[in-house]
From TrEMBL:
<keyword id="KW-0201">Cytochrome c-type biogenesis</keyword>
<dbReference type="Pfam" id="PF03918">
    <property type="entry name" value="CcmH"/>
</dbReference>
<comment type="function">
    <text>Possible subunit of a heme lyase.</text>
</comment>
<dbReference type="InterPro" id="IPR051263">
    <property type="entry name" value="C-type_cytochrome_biogenesis"/>
</dbReference>
<keyword id="KW-0408">Iron</keyword>
<feature type="domain" description="CcmH/CycL/Ccl2/NrfF N-terminal">
    <location>
        <begin position="6"/>
        <end position="147"/>
    </location>
</feature>
<keyword id="KW-0479">Metal-binding</keyword>
<protein>
    <recommendedName>
        <fullName>Cytochrome c-type biogenesis protein</fullName>
    </recommendedName>
</protein>
<keyword id="KW-0732">Signal</keyword>
<keyword id="KW-0812">Transmembrane</keyword>
<dbReference type="InterPro" id="IPR038297">
    <property type="entry name" value="CcmH/CycL/NrfF/Ccl2_sf"/>
</dbReference>
<keyword id="KW-0349">Heme</keyword>
<feature type="transmembrane region" description="Helical">
    <location>
        <begin position="102"/>
        <end position="122"/>
    </location>
</feature>
<keyword id="KW-0472">Membrane</keyword>
<dbReference type="InterPro" id="IPR005616">
    <property type="entry name" value="CcmH/CycL/Ccl2/NrfF_N"/>
</dbReference>
<feature type="signal peptide">
    <location>
        <begin position="1"/>
        <end position="17"/>
    </location>
</feature>
<keyword id="KW-1133">Transmembrane helix</keyword>
Length: 149
């Protein structure tokens, strides 16, 4: 029973795509590489970071990260090198600077504009609605006849 539980736990755990031949000998450098890889998006899979992806480009990016670390780059320098080469799309969390500021603020700005427009529309609509006139005595008697049969 314990073996079955262990097998099920291993199946349910996330499968990382890092191959044994990619792992660095230095545990500190490998930890840095994993940390950097967690923040880089696979350009094929889109929703996965490069550690989780089995795509060939993800493997190339993992190897590139490790090459940069072996060359002596800091984490920021390795990420900057990859962003320079592949663009900001590879970042799982894009920066909030430059042209990205427009993207970060476009959603809230459009929501606020729509809310203000809806408020003006509802206010104008409620002012223009005329109150219903009361029924005349003839209309009341006709309604009673129709309802009572």
């Amino acid at each position: 029973m314990k073996k079955l539980m262990l097998v099920l736990a291993l199946i349910a755990s996330p499968a990382f795509a890092v191959n044994p031949d990619e792992v660095l000998d230095d545990p500190a450098l490998e930890a840095r590489a994993r940390d950097i890889s967690a923040g880089l998006r696979c350009v094929v899979c889109r929703g996965e970071n490069i550690d989780e992806s089995n795509a060939a480009i993800a493997r190339d990016l993992r190897l590139l990260v490790r090459e940069r670390l072996l060359a002596g780059d800091s984490n920021d320098e390795a990420v900057a090198f990859i962003v320079d080469r592949y663009g900001e799309y590879v970042l799982m969390k894009p920066t909030a600077s430059g042209a990205n500021v427009l993207l970060w603020w476009a959603g809230p700005a459009l929501f606020l504009t729509a809310a203000i427009g809806a408020g003006f529309y509802l206010r104008r609509r409620s002012r223009s609605a005329e109150p219903a006139e009361a029924l005349t005595e003839d209309e009341k008697s006709r309604l009673d006849e129709l309802l009572n049969g």
